[in-house]
């Protein structure tokens, strides 16, 4: 974006109300043609919205978000394959399933945490499928960092200990791009206070000056 275009986008976002929390400053608009729902990135999980952290970084409201086009196999126990706690008996925003084996069932927040830790080693925790599984998870809004898994040694991991330095907001408003950061002001980069694996410019997530911490949608 040019500087003038960015300023215009910021002014427009300031006039838009988040359909989840009803506060102003919603900078993300559903990508579905004809849908004018807008929301803040931190509000997305509450409203069951999806942001795809790949390609064009598209975002969708609860009504138009992508859904898994398959049926989970019936099992005697409806438990998450990761945390072993109970899951829903059907596929939903909060309950997902592996498209390959269709047997691994897991909470959205569980598979997101696994993705953040596994990085380039990410795969189905049950059948170990990679390509169809990864593509499905990316489409469903799971954030997958391109880095070695956290359980490898520091020497093998290499870049693992480097500070995350990219804005992951669904719509980045910075005229200099997602990699640009400043020490303070609207283009200061905030890292997730829980996982530090995702970041956002202060302006891109409508963070006020009184904000002391920020958590990504996964945490």
UniProtKB/TrEMBL annotation:
Entry keyword Zinc-finger: yes
Domain RING-type: start-end pairs: 80-128
Any one Gene Ontology cellular component term annotated for this protein: nucleus
SUPFAM superfamilies assigned: FYVE/PHD zinc finger (SSF57903), RING/U-box (SSF57850)
Span of the signal peptide: none
Top-rank taxon, per record: Eukaryota
Regions that span the bilayer: none
Molecular function via GO: ligase activity; zinc ion binding
Start and end residues of each PHD-type domain: 1-65
Keywords in alphabetical order: Ligase, Metal-binding, Zinc, Zinc-finger
Alphabetical list of PANTHER family matching this protein: PHD FINGER PROTEIN, PHD FINGER PROTEIN 7
UniProt-recorded name of the protein: G2E3 ligase
UniProt organism field: Climacteris rufus (rufous treecreeper)
């Amino acid at each position: 974006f040019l500087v003038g275009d960015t300023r215009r986008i910021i002014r427009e976002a300031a006039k838009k109300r988040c359909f989840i929390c009803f506060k102003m400053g919603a900078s993300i608009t559903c990508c579905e043609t004809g849908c004018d729902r807008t929301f803040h990135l931190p509000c997305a999980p509450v409203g069951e919205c999806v942001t795809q952290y790949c390609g064009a970084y598209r975002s969708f409201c609860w009504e138009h978000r992508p859904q898994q086009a398959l049926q989970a196999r019936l099992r005697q126990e409806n438990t998450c394959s990761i945390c072993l706690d109970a899951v829903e008996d059907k596929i939903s925003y909060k309950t997902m399933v592996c498209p390959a084996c269709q047997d691994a069932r897991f909470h959205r927040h569980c598979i997101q945490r696994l993705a953040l830790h596994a990085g380039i080693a990410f795969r189905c925790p049950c059948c170990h499928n990679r390509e169809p599984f990864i593509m499905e998870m990316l489409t469903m809004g799971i954030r997958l960092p391109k880095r070695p898994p956290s359980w490898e040694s520091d020497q093998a991991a290499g870049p693992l200990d480097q500070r995350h330095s990219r804005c992951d907001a669904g719509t980045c408003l910075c005229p200099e791009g997602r990699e640009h950061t400043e020490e303070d002001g609207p283009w200061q980069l905030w890292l997730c206070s829980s996982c530090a694996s995702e970041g956002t410019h202060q302006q891109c997530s409508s963070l006020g000056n009184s904000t002391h911490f920020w958590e990504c949608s996964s945490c």
